């Protein structure tokens, strides 16, 4: 009972404290969850483990540099060049740019599309920009055959990733439709282009944005690094340096840092991993899996809860899918139900990195994000839940 109470209180604290300070909210939520579920020595060990984990450190440093890339591109006019020469309309830019960035295998990519949405969405409320950036960033990731989460989850379920892809397509189209109805439909106006199209003006800023994930992906594939996040850090550093070199104006890095507050993004990543490591050490996941429901319904509900609680896809999948395997074979249909539920719990999660850093970038309260994103996410969850109940009664 105390473990359940601690888990619920930790999420409530995260939501409340995040109104003022998101990194602090994550640390407080982790501490409260740990106090209710773990010995103090274990909490201390997990804290030290996270703070000394070089993979977390390099990832946190990379996350701190990414907003500096956006800030330098904005101050130099490179972001204006990109928006002015990406001639696909206001709604097209705001939906497609995060979707494209989402396919790039790089942590923190939401910060790369955020400046584009900021520039293209002038006159649009920041909370809507946050919701659009987060929702559309993950649409293609849901069905992307090269997604590490999808590959690993399909393997756990003894399924081909391409079979999983086909069965996830209905969820993709439902999510695309809901995103258009709940979010993109609210985007009004158009972008006024005052200058002729410039291929150079398009390719230079687009190249800066793409060089980071390109190097990240290439280095990880070519060089067996002891810490893979070093590749992410190298890619981000290269993009930042290039953005400074090609700038037509002299940039004041101190002023950019004051505006972008890169330290907040670094602390968010550290706080997120502190919470995640304490959650993994607790037995909350096992408690959720022990709820007396049918396997299909239990896995859909527990998957959504764990996706929401951890801000991850693979971690909940690695817990939920093996639980189902102990009770039966996972068919492609059941896999799609469970994976969709996990995925949209993750999309909505307050400890999801893309959510955290986008909220910080646009300075939007978390409650505003939930107000816009929760309806379409819960619609998908309830569809999966209803189908699981019907499936259980039929079979």
TrEMBL record:
The chain crosses the membrane at residues 29-49, 56-73, 93-114, 135-152, 164-185, 197-215, 227-251, 263-281, 287-309, 321-349, 369-391. Keywords: Membrane, Transmembrane, Transmembrane helix. The keyword Transmembrane applies. The keyword Disulfide bond does not apply. Pfam families: DUF401 (PF04165). It comes from the Bacteria. InterPro entries: DUF401 (IPR007294). Coiled coil: none annotated. Signal peptide: none annotated. PANTHER family: PROTEIN, PUTATIVE-RELATED. This is DUF401 family protein. It comes from candidate division TA06 bacterium DG_78. The lineage of its organism: Bacteria, Bacteria division TA06.
